[in-house]
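Same chain as my last thread, 267 residues:
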Amino acid sequence: MISLNSIGKTFKVYERPEGKWGLLKGAFVRQTRVVRALDGVSFSIGEGELVGLIGPNGAGKSTTVKIMSGILTPDGGRCVIGGRVPWKERKRHVADIGVVFGQRSQLWWDVPVSDSFMLLRDIYDIPDEIFRARKDELVGALDIAGILKTPARQLSLGQRMRCELAAALLHSPKLLFLDEPTIGLDAVSKLALRAFLKEENKRSGVTILLTTHDMDDVEALCSRVMVIGHGKLLYDGGMDVLKARYGAYEGQDIDEVIADMYREMDL
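reply #2:
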């Protein structure tokens, strides 16, 4: 389903000189430095897997997802998803994927959620009968019937994230990228989203890649975990193996285990 081989990506960052004359100097002299976001990342994910991608801030998680989504083009390496190169066959590629960024929205801010769903129906060219059946299925599973006529800007964060998930799954994608989907959610909303994702993965066989800082999400959902840091893939294996390798004692809290792992890996 997903195959990445030696993917690299760098960004040029502009820096302003320090001091009170920094702004003026910066207008004439632009200092830059190169940041290596990804450095030879390789992995493969099979159809129907639910995989967690974790790492500290700036590790390269979102960059990896954006390359796999076709948003970014890597500097080097090979990425094939479903037989396609994402950034070269973007229109065909996005027809088979769904993406949820916890800090970005695909819902139109000032219109009712149901109108956003209909716009997405037209964008993905979903037949009316299939659209109605799929929408009803998602509305029921995510318990959003009572907020479909509410504009996205009036929703609570938990309500909006449930609607974002429904929007990403309306066209029944084969692959779902979730980047911090539970950020800022309360405990009840988190549990509901986890239950839904487990069921959707089991019932429809959608492949899910989850990036998050919430280790409880990873432990609850993912049997396989990949750890990225300094732009490199540092661990790829089972959650049980990770806990056994980096846990100081049996029954240790997962956040403590990950913190110990980050310290050992100098992240």
